Amino acid sequence: MTNHWIDIGNSDCILIMGSNAAENHPVSFKWVTKAMGNGAALISVDPRFTRTSARADIYASLRSGTDIAFLGGMIKYILDNDLIQKEYVVNYTNAPLLINKGFGFNDGLFSGYDASKRAYDKSTWQYQLDANGIPMKDETLQDHTCVYQLLKRHYSRYDLDTVSQITGTPKEDLMKVYEAYAGTGKIGKAGTIMYAMGWTQHTVGTQVIRTMAMIQLLLGNMGVAGGGVNALRGESNVQGSTDHCLLFHILPGYLKTPKASQASLKVYNDESTPRTNDPMSANWWGNYPKYSVSLLKSMYGGNATRENDFGYSWLPKLDDGANYSWLTLFDEMYKGNMKGFFAWGQNPACSGANANKVRKALENLDWMVNVNLFDNETGSFWRGPGKDPSKIKTEVFLLPCAASMEKEGSITNSGRWSQWRYKAVDPPGDARPDSEIMNALYHRLKLLYEAAEKDEVVFPDPIIKLKWDYGDDEHVDIHAVAKEINGYDLTTGKLLPSFGLLKDDGTTSSGNWLYCASYTEKGNMAARRSRYDASGIGLYPEWSWCWPLNRRIIYNRASVDLEGNPWDREHPVIRWNPVTGKWVGDVPDGGWPPMSQRDKTRLPFIMKPEGRARIFGMGLADGPFPEHYEPLECPIEQNPMSSQRINPAVKLWHEPGVGTEMDKAFSCDPRYPIVATTYRVTEHWQTGLMTRNQPWLVEIQPQMFVEMSEELADLRGIKNGEKCLVKSARGEVEAVAIVTKRFKPFVITGVTVHQVGLPWCYGWTTPPDGGDSANLLTPSIGDANTMIPESKAFMVNVEKIG
Amino acid sequence: MKISRRTFFKVSGATAIGVAMGKLGVDLSPVTAYAVDLRKNLKHARETTTICPYCAVGCSAIVHASGGKVINIEGDPDHPISGGSLCSKGSALYQLANNENRIDRVMYRAPYSDKWEYKTWDWALDEIAKRIKATRDATFTEENEKGQVVNRTTGIASVGSAALDNEECWLYQKFLRSIGLVYIEHQARI
Predict the structure, then answer these.
(1) Which residue of B has its CA nearest to A392?
(2) What is the pTM (predicted TM-score) of this model?
(3) Do residue B182 and residue A383 have CB atoms under 8 angstroms apart?
(4) pLDDT (tens digit, 9 = 90+) per residue, B137-169?
(5) Do A392 and B112 touch (CB under 8 A)?
(6) Do B68 and A696 touch (CB under 8 A)?
(7) Which residue, among A254, A298, A425, would best test binding to B if mutated, counting the most B CBs under 10 Å from its CB?
(8) How open is the CA angle A308-A314-A319, to the nearest 5 degrees?
(9) Nearest Cα residue to B76 out of B66, B91, B88
(10) A160-167 vs A67-80: helix axis angle to the nearest 10?
């Protein structure tokens, strides 16, 4: 979230789309209803009339996977009616900047497309630069190569008729949503978006979110109270685990994993550090080497020296252009190229798309370490449905760990608040905190490498030279770890109070620069519990701690006009005090004076070298403007927007020589005529492993179901409560039919299309007769930018059993 | 009247008889007895705060422990976001702490076996360390096909976890990268 949970209460208009917050983030709704009590409008856009929809002022349905068309129509509405917050758009976004004259778009493809690589050469997706190397601009927004004009041209095609043909949304409902939301472009009004996996799990997921970010910029809703782009993250610490980068492509603090071509730290830093000639740009990532060297010092301590490039060669390198993400990982495992596997606090046999492939892939391992609170479908895959243990070699070590109230540490919520929690009791029996399991494993492994003869080990340095000093080989001082993450001034041994003090010369350490200031000489900031709040907008600056630097609303220098006065006088995030020459309110995105002081100021979007938020996004893999493409599996042969049916920049796992025989996909196939999506229920969490093992919760939500419209139930001769079989190209799952008015058939390009929905919170281990995972049905295909699998839109059939 | 949890018990205690004999004809006496016992026990319990382990709203809860057992978990009214509220999952946290399905011993499944065996930590940690070393050393790549230094292990992969604490995430990525892993993924990818 750019903003935070309490801040939703400051909004004038809340769009909930790609999420069902009332069901899946129930307590967030406290702030939604608070805003509504102050007159805010709630809009719910969802294929199904959900619990969120039931509270909404406006509900609009749409077919799964058509969000870009829906939102593209909103951009056209905003531009046609000139509802943009113009001063904001001209000064804070790249709308006035001029784009290379070679840039173009034709019939679904942007300039630079290479069909053989399914990828773009992005050389025309760049700014026109002046003699000083600074992007050229036209603040009147009239130049036909400026971003604003290109945007207008691109979305002119998203008229109401075409959008409605794609999404299945009645035109009057589209208009209601567009009018209500576009009203937040007025100065002093704020609109916010609450989205979740309903937006990310698509082949165009990143671009759905970008479309909304562009709307927020056009309406001046970024940086302000009650605005922002707010991802409702689904796991208690998925924000923190992402910040600490348990992902192949990034190192803690969103630094880049080094590439094979980057042979030295200097090359790595040079290629990772953006540059600008614009004196108005803060270009915050210009500090990159300070953060990367401080990270290496935290990894290797005294063994990281200037002479050895601070241990840079010890970090594993990725092949240039290679992708080692989830789908690739399990594809490699399926193909027998993986021998060992850790499934640590995760249950991929139920959570992975195309779960049958995942379950089969696990058979090809030599060994698996599975750390969990409960026995689960991953650790026990060898005794799962259709498996013959006597034919499965994989050894499994199932290690019992502590639950959240049985250990001490911090987790970071969706609003970036790092909150400390305490140990109440010991874990049961032999169960141990995860940190102690990691610690014991590291110590034993290190002993093996130290004891081995030289010719018996391969490259032991990264293991032996690692800094690992948190106690003995049994116990971990978790505060020592938290302090290491914060970082030290290594010349004084003192904890650093700010990442502004980090250096690239090896005299500072910080495991994660974004968390520098979280644990200082003043104490553990995440443990703070003061309810002091003078902000008037619920910032609670002394409750826990928030990255970066306790800034509760990021991009907040865009919440003020050029003089430093808040756009919204009633909900000021920050305000410039001309007498003291300082900002008042939230921690500002840099302390520079307001934009009117042109010689001293900096543009507000400090993480971009141009200092402006990008309406034209040259960094994306699949185009600088979002474009509607159909999901991999869809019900229509022809995309009404262009002759590109699916995203032209996604990797096609089902094509010969790419994936495996298990990566099937059937689009527009009469055997699979029904659109399907997946979701959760309040009582079960993710694959349900933690909640399926709790009697109270199982009693409320006991088993797998498939929800369908009365019309589809009639068509299939299915009655409410009857058992059904749901089939896709990849698998089948039994489910109880829930026939409701919450789904309605769509009319898509003149044809009636049905949609069903299934929860993915069930698995075969427990409860008995509870059913299995909806991910047995979902396809192996990922978003063009993130490779997040498309679990939210695919094609199935539904049959009555018996 | 502002009703805190403690005054709620007083109110509900005072009206318990009326409710039990109320027009619904439901006997609430076992519930009332439970509440009265709980109230007594909570007086002597140790209170710590925790953050709910489910979604990322980050609601706070108060954990009451006595005799090494969690005896109650309820919403934390001081928390600025949740103000004492919890959803159905958060309200059931007691059953996560007190749950007979929790695994409390190290378990091992041997190749081609059809059952779990109990093992000691000592045995398991040594065996896992040996397998990590053997697989890492056998699949370690110092240079790729282009002759570039890559120093990585492609024969081992890891998934997880957004359920770990921040400190554990940092330690875990540090550990995995020290053994050369590049296949490091977790819930954020799906």
Answers:
(1) B112
(2) 0.96
(3) no
(4) 999 999 999 999 999 999 999 999 999 999 999
(5) yes
(6) no
(7) A425
(8) 120
(9) B91
(10) 160
